[in-house]
C-alpha cells in the first residue's frame, strides 16, 4: 500500500520488483535458478563424457582408435550444434523456449544412452544403435543450449548493473567447473565400484547424469515467473553471412566493369549499411586469427580419450586403501582451473608485468599453446615408460609363445626352423617374456621336441597367428606331456589384474578371489581367465572335497598384470606358484599430474584469455558471432584428432610427439599473425560506430532531401 504522499510506507508490502531480487542487492532472484541449472547440466555432461572412452572399449568392445575417433566425433558435434541453437533462439523461439525444448531433447538423449548400457536390452547392435542415437540427441541438446544459458543469465540484469553482471559470469563459470569436478569424481565410482548385470554398472553411471539433467530442466522451469525474457531480435550471424555472401557475389559480377574498392567487403554497400560492413570487417580480422586455434583444442580434448587410455595402463594405487579410477583423473583439470584462475590473475600476471614484460592477450594465448605442447611432451615421456610393461600383440603370420616347465627338472625345447629357446628352461621358472614365433599359415601344426633327463618327446601342437600361447610341459609318472593354451596378453582397460589357475591335482577345486569364483578342473587343466580387484591376497578361500584347503597365498595382484597360478601339492599342502604372464603396471598414475598441470596452465592462458580477447575486439552486436567462431575452433580441433586417430596408425608415444610438434608449428604461425594484428580499444570502437552512424544519418538525410525536392512532400524512408 502507498501512503498519502504516494510513497511506500515501512509497513507496506515490498513492491513486485523487489521480490524478484535477492534481498538488499541488485542481483535478480532468477539467476539462482540459472546457476543451479548450469551446475546440474554440466554435471550431467561431464559425468557422462568421462565414462565414454572406457564404455566404448569395455562395453561395446571397440578398439582404442575407433573409441577415440567416436569420442572426438561426439565432442566435435557438441561444438557444431551451438550455431543451430543460436539461430533458433535469435530468429524464432527466443532463449527461454530454446533452452526448454532442447533440454527436453537433452534428457531424452541421456535416457536413451542409459538404456543402451543395460546388457539385457537387445544385442550388441541394439546397444550400439541406442548409444549413438543417445549421443546425437545429447550433442544437439548440450550444444543447442550452450550459447543461450549464459546470455539468458546476462539478460536478467538491468543495463546499469554492470559489476553485478560481471560477478554473475564469474559465479556461472565456477558452477561449470564445480559440476565438472564433482561429476568426474562420482560417475567413475558408480561405474567401477557398483556391480550390476555381472560387471561394471554403466547403466547406473549414465543414469545419474540423466537424473541430474532432469533436475536441471525442472529447476529452470521453476524460475519461469521470475525471468526477464527478451523477444527474438533476428540472428546477427545470418546477417553477417548474407553480407559476406552478397559482397562476394557482387564483386564477381561487377569487378570487370567497375573500379576496384578498398576492401572486398565494400562491394556490399549497395545493400547493407556502412556500419554493418565495418563491423563485419572487424569480426573477420579476429576470425582470421582463429584459423590456427583448433590445434590447441585437438590436444586439450584428449584428456578424455588418449590420456584416459594411458591411465588404464598405470599403477592407480595411493597407499593400501585407496585406488583411483582411470577416468577420475580428468577431475584434475576442473580442480586445477579453480586454483589457477586466481593465482594467474593475482600473482603470475602482476609479477610478469613487474618484470616489464607486456602481457597482451595474443601473447598469453601463444604461451598457452607452448604449455599445451609441453604437456604432450610430458605425456610422451610417461607413455614411453608405460609401454615397457605392455606385450605387443603378434602381427599377421606370427604368434607369441612362452614355455612353462612343470617337469621337475630342466628341459630344453626345440621348434623346427627356429632358435627361440636356446637355453635350458628351469623347473617352475617364470618365463621372462613372450617369444615371437613365425608361422607359414594362419593356423599351423608344429612338431616341438622336448628333452628331459636324456629322454625326448615330440609334441604336435596347432598354433594360430596373432594369438598368444603358453606351452605347458608336465610329467605324468615318467612320461612328458604337453598342453598348449591360449593366453590373454592385453591389459584390462580398468586396470584390474587377470587371474587363472592351472591345476595338477586329481580333484576339482573351487577358489574364491575377492568376489570372483574360479573352478579349477583336475588333471592338468586350466580354469577360466577372469579379472579381480587389485589387492593383497594372503589367504584365498579354496574348496577341495577330500581334504582341507587352509587357504592359498596369492600375494599382491597388481594393476595391469596377468597371472597364471600353478596349483600343486608340496609337503602335504596345496600351494599356488605364480607366473606373471604380463607384467604389472610399473609407472604410477601420479606421473600424469605434470601433464595435467601444464595443460591446465595452458588452458587458463589460452581459453580464458581468448574469450576475453574475442569479447573486447567485437562490436557490441557482433559478440555472438565471435562466440560462435570460438566454439567452432573447438569442433574442428576434435575433427583433427578424429582424422589422426583413424588415419595415422602411429604408436601412441609417436602420436603424442606429432601433436606436440604440430602445435608448436601452429604457435609460430599464430605468433607471426599476431604481430600484424592491431588491437581495437573500446573507446575507438565506439568512435568508429558513432562515425558510421553519423555517415548513415547524413546519407539518409541527403536521400530524404532529394525525394522532397522531387515530390514536394516529406517521405518516410
End-to-end C-alpha gap: 48 Å
Low-pLDDT runs: 1-18, 699-717
CATH 4th-level superfamily of the largest domain: MFS general substrate transporter like domains
CATH fold field value of the largest domain? Growth Hormone, Chain: A
Strand content: 15-25%
What top-tier CATH class of the largest domain fits best?
Answer: Mainly Alpha
Pairing-aware structural class of the strands and helices? alpha+beta
Shape: elongated
Work out the helicity level: 40-55%
* Total count of domains: 4
Q: How many β strands by DSSP?
A: 21
Give the helices and strands, then pairings.
Blueprint: H1 16-19, H2 30-59, H3 64-116, H4 124-155, H5 162-192, E1 195-196, E2 199-200, H6 202-222, H7 236-254, H8 274-290, H9 294-300, H10 306-311, E3 317-318, E4 322-323, H11 331-354, H12 361-386, E5 398-406, E6 412-414, E7 435-438, E8 443-452, E9 455-464, E10 468-476, E11 479-487, E12 498-503, E13 509-513, E14 516-520, E15 525-526, E16 530-531, E17 535-537, E18 541-543, E19 555-557, E20 562-570, E21 573-582, H13 593-617, H14 623-647, H15 652-675, H16 682-711
Parallel strand pairs: 5-10, 12-20
Antiparallel strand pairs: 1-2, 3-4, 5-7, 6-8, 8-9, 10-11, 12-15, 12-16, 13-14, 13-18, 17-19, 20-21
Helix pairs in contact: 2-3, 2-4, 2-5, 2-6, 3-4, 3-6, 3-14, 5-6, 5-11, 8-14, 8-16, 9-14, 9-15, 11-13, 12-13, 12-15, 13-14
Organism: Oryzias latipes
Subunit structure: Interacts (via extracellular domain region) with trypsin.
Protein name: Solute carrier family 15 member 2
